[in-house]
């Protein structure tokens, strides 16, 4: 199975697509480990770097240790997706 890559965030999408994803009957919260199994690591690394996370905990906060970040599984525009909620913004991988 191909890994999911970063597609968009709620700012770059439309409200209906995001609402349908967030409130889909099959939407559920997942663990970071489950999320990592599904996404392209390079795509995620670029996003984490853009957020300003350090690569190693000794150098600062990592995304893995940030308890404000949550991970989810759902459908975006009819396609299976996973997404991150970071600072109240959804970042979608399809």
Distance between the termini: 12 Å
Walk across the major sheet and give the strand order. 1-5-4-3-2
Beta-strand percent range:
25-35%
Mean pLDDT across all residues, rounded? Answer: 92
Helix coverage percent of residues?
Answer: 25-40%
- Uncertain residue ranges: none
Number of strands: 5
Domain unit count? 1
Q: Which key terms come to mind for this protein?
A:
94 residues; alpha+beta; five-stranded antiparallel beta sheet; 3 helices; 5 strands; globular
Can you tell me about this structure?
Helix content is 28%, strand content 29%. It is α+β, with helices and mostly antiparallel strands. The chain has one domain (6-93). Strands 1-5-4-3-2 form a 5-stranded antiparallel β-sheet, sandwiched between helices. A hairpin with a 2-residue loop joins strand 4 (79-86) and strand 5 (89-93). It is globular. The two termini are 12 Å apart. The model has no long low-confidence stretch (mean pLDDT 92).
